[in-house]
## 1
Amino acid sequence: MFQKLGKHTLLFFFWTLLQVLIINHWELASGWFLPQPYVFFILALPFETPIAVLLLLCLGQGLVVDSFTDTPGLNASALLWVGMLRPWVLKAIAPRDGYEFGAEPTIRGLGSTWFINYVLILAGVHHLWLFILEFFGWSFTGRIIGTSLLSLIGTLGIGFIYQFFGAGSKMKR
Amino acid sequence: MRNIILFFIRNYPFFLFIGLQLLCGILFLNYNSFQRTTFLNSTSVLSGNLYETRQDIVDYLNLKEINAELREELEYLQNHQPAPSETYLEYFQPITDSNYAQKYEFVGAHVIHSTVHKNRNYLTLNKGKNHGVEANMAVKSKDGLIGIVLKSSFNYSLVLPIINNRYNAGVKLKRKNYFGILSWDGKDPAKALVSDVPKHANIEKGDSIVTRSASGIYPTGLFVGTVDSVRAIPGGNYLDIHLELGVDFHAIYDVTIVKNLTKSEQASLEKTEN
């Protein structure tokens, strides 16, 4: 229990700092490529996390990221969607026999197809909502959709790199 | 009644979600007023310090380029300085003329964080109240106008640059003094718009646009950009002007904050008429 708490606290700092100190400073594809891998902190939380805790963590992490990007409420609002939809998405894409108790949402645990579905749905909603609020207006429709798709690919890619080479792959053993 | 309460309890995650979303919406929509009052921005101790540490690392890695830039500027200054023999006066002469009184004070700062690809871009500078930086001071670089200080904490300040869709400033045509309003449409960080310039101003491509200092914030005549294209608004009396900005917001680092020493005098004089 405490080991898990420590691990997820570390993950919180890792993903948040990676986002605000490194990835937010990338200036690639004139702003059409803005991966948001900080969602992996929420995505990697244990399945049995109570939804109230999940939502409050979403709000908290979102506001921390917002305090760095000077957009109070923007990332928090997008992340709340992830927290709200996560239990439903988990149910919808569950393997035939359901999840084992204590299983974790990783490629090692549930396979890469499951992981891709999981990330594409939840991070997709997050990215779309984030960029709708960011570029508010009909004249930006193309940009909103394009940026969401490109960034989603980036986010998924970073997730894959982390799953294969990062701390996650070792911890599972 | 009991059923309603049970309904709320059973669906509490949904209502919690709605409540938190509303909170975020309020924060987001009241952005400007919250920006001044809450800790949720990059001038706070936590994010400001982290950004500064990050910038220190980046600075160290870029020392070579920064050195080259400094050398270029030094050479420019040396080449444009009048020879010492030209400047001395025949005898000591105390200057009491108000023409020579200092009107602006300048303080240099570094940009420790900036964005260019958003609709609302901001810059964070590494100078704050401890260095005399207050809200509503102009910020410029050697290439021209950058923006205005929105808020300052003890060691950092937050700048609203031209490339933010909430930015507005009075500007004028350098050649003829026709004035208009500078704004940004959120599309290209190298371009800006000028509106409210009358049709008979005969603006041409390549004309310089400079600041007007209507509110006493900006020094008069500070370069903003050159006219890129001019279009008459059909059925209106005004021109729609697209501007090529002088400052490259992708690469701003050394900036100058401008304090107008006579701003309060101008403001109180103008206030008496309203």
Note: Chain B touches chain A at residues 12-14, 16-17, 20-21, 23-29, 31, 34-35, 38-42, 44, 46-47, 50-51, 54, 113, 115-120, 122, 158, 186, 250 (CB under 8 Å).
## 2
Amino acid sequence: MTAPTAMTDQRRPMAATPEGTRMDDAIRLEGASRSFGGGHTLVVALHPTDLVVAAGELVAVMGPSGSGKSTLLSLVGGLDRPTAGRVIVGGQDLGTLNAKGLAVLRRRTVGYVFQELNLLAGLTARENVTLPLELDGAKLGAARQAADAALAAVEMSHLADRFPDDLSGGEQQRVAIARSMVGGRRIVLADEPTGALDSMNGEMVMRLLRKHCDDGGAALLVTHDAAHAAWADRVVFLRDGRIVDVSVPAPSPEFSRHDPLTAALDAA
Amino acid sequence: MSVRYGLLALLAEEPTHGYQLKTAFERRTGGSWALNIGQVYTTLQRLERDGLVEVDLGGSPAGDGERADRTDYRITAAGREQLNTWFASAVVPEGPARDELTIKVLLAVAAGDVDVDGILQRQRTATLAQLQAYTRRKAQADPDRELAWLMLLDALIFKAEAEVRWLDACEARIRRHARRNREDGHDRTDRND
């Protein structure tokens, strides 16, 4: 099995080195671990882990339930604290932030998308997207303008005045993505965002996350779906609380005879 | 069989020659599969032998020499019938899986002293890397102009995805099996999963 240093790929030779914070690191785990209990009942959910997501990168995490992927995402989201090590998000060491500081980080820097659609049913799509900015004290006019831009980015402008119940699952998830990115939040944390969607809507969600990262944002995606993980620049495999391997896109720009379909056709 | 029917399908539209068939076939199948021109001629000869195509004597004269390479073929009535039957029939999957990966994993499990987890993870990583490459190509494709190419990519993506799911299922089965064996060894009464 590959050690966590395998996080380093050719394009980003510095990406996994624990010393020094790069300016374009969106997410950085340095030996971050999480365990519960102690002594005979010690359960290690996540062994000391190094992981870097740079600006412009989409990184997917795959692993069976109990492999530590939810723990990892909770640590990055500041919903849980590491037992040891550091978690740095948007240049801020979460360990130095109090509850208020974390709340500010969530409103200004980090957005979330979950499997369960958690739009507020009593608010229209536009109002849902405006909400994080209003909570952050933005003026209503400016907040609405930013919300409209975010809705346009996910091609939902024409449905901005609908309530969630009048939107399809795919449309609701697009609104949730707009909400996660509104107001220039660059880091998106996505927990099975395609889980409740059919394949075409799931692909739409992945295209939006991909575009967000291609435009300079960053995203950490937890998924069990290989086809959706494949939109990522790197796929991190977790097993029993450890990173066991990382995949990057296969280099072959052209199809080879080893492709299953090509081989099948040739054999015919 | 696919080359045979591919050529028949193209000839059903209009009589044409081998090289034209090669390029049209490659375009139709998403550009993924470069046909060998020799393979095209061999297939045409077999189709002619079986009475499914014939040399089109009334065909357009060759423009620039190499007459033999520019022989036009056209589909016969029997060829059309066979093509229609092919389009109308469901493709029946071949027998039990005999691909290298399946066999490798089965043999590794039976061997007992092989690192099966390692085999599964290395394969998972390799397949994901392939899947990432396909997905990049899909992201770059024009959905309005590259229908065949996108459908081909979908086929490759779904097959790779199925392979990852199979690897995951193998791992889950092996773990469950190991756990049961452990429990059997320690306490025969404590079997509740």
Note: The CA atoms of residues 59 and 211 of chain A lie 13 Å apart.
